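Morning F.,

Quick status update on the modeling queue. The single chain you submitted on Monday has been processed. Sequence for confirmation:
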Amino acid sequence: MSSKALIDSAVFNSTTAGSKGLADRLFAHWFSRLVYAQIWEDPQADLAALQLAPGANILTISSGGCNALAYLSAEPAAVHAVDLNAAHLAMLDIKQKAIKHLPDYDAVLQFLGAANHSDNIKRYQRHIRHHLHEDASEFWESRSLSGKPRYHYFTQQAYQHGLLGEFIGFAHFFVRMMGGDLRKMLEAKTLQEQSVLFERHIAPVFETRLFQWIARQPVALYSLGIPPSQFEELKRDASQGLHALFKERMRHLACDFPLQENCFAQQAFGRRYDTTQQAGLPMYLQRSHFDALRRNIDRLHPHHTTLTDFLRQQPRASMHAYVFLDAQDWMDQQQLSALWQEVSRTAAPGAKVIFRTGGSTSPLERQLPADILAQWHTDPAHNRALYATDRSAIYGGMHLYTKI
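Structure tokens below.
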């Protein structure tokens, strides 16, 4: 099935009608290209929540691929990375093949970390090109709007590409127009300095009339991968207005974690990874995990399908961990129930599911049939503690469910 058909099947559901129907169609069209060059869920928080034993079978949504690769550090039997969007699987494939076939860690760091050196063309042509899956090869060899093959992204700050990368670039321009400056955050050396710089250079922008108007427009968030259904969940939590909600989430990103140890903040405020600071790199690019990733790299398996269709092909009680990112915010009750019927069938005893939500509350208690929900345990207080550890800070909740 094509990416368009898969995305349409996920976005269009029983709630697709009237003005939301038009919004759903626009979002589905928008989401059919590369959205995430890097993922925006924190794998450190994921692994702390999952507490994986060696030999686990893991199902995750691929997105930009960073987390699927990071999970290899936990010595799993298999990581199955599912995605509706073929461009995301192409991004995963080039990262996987770079880790497997480039000569050493330093070459991987230059290609995937710095991602802006002219030598990366030679690295791609000599070591990666001939190992790509057919669909991934077609994506990277085809030409972007610049007229160059897309593998040139890795000579031009790769993570500034894709809809989210372009959105961050626009955000920098917009904040400067409003009198602020996102890059000023990088001058901070302590958490106290981070708070001072946030209040001085970023917080006032959220109070401008123009930003408050933009915050109320669902289409403004499409490049963040937020569909109309998830936008409605955001509004549930925005008792003081969406502009205030977005300001508090930006504050969490900017002020609650040391910037030198936060790859998400590095991208948001600097539009690059600082390759001189190991703690500020994504897990999959840290030297301490490189040997494990290279040793386990063939245990990563991409799948261009839906979560539910993938699980229908798996044996009973065969999976140990599920990572759904924020996909359930897209689903209506029928889609959610169909997914969790298969999750419950395929889950081994003690299996764990983690996911994020745009709002603060889980959708499961109000949408799942009682007989399915009764098979799972969750602890709201523990979930709030997990959310506080997620350095990406763009969601309202992180939730963990364990098979009873």
